[in-house]
Amino acid sequence: MSKVYSDATAALAGVLRDDMMIMAGGFGLCGIPEALIAAIHESGVKGLTIISNNAGVDGIGLGVLLETRQVRKMISSYVGENKTFATQYLAGELEIEFNPQGTLAERIRAGGAGIPAFYTKTGVGTLVAEGKEERAFGGMRYIMETGLFADLAIVHAWKGDTEGNLVYRKTARNFNPMMATAAKVTVAEVEHLVNAGEIDPDHMHTPGIYIKRMIKLDNPVKRIEQRTVRQRPAA
Question: What's the start-to-end Cα distance of the chain, in Å?
Answer without folding.
Answer: 61
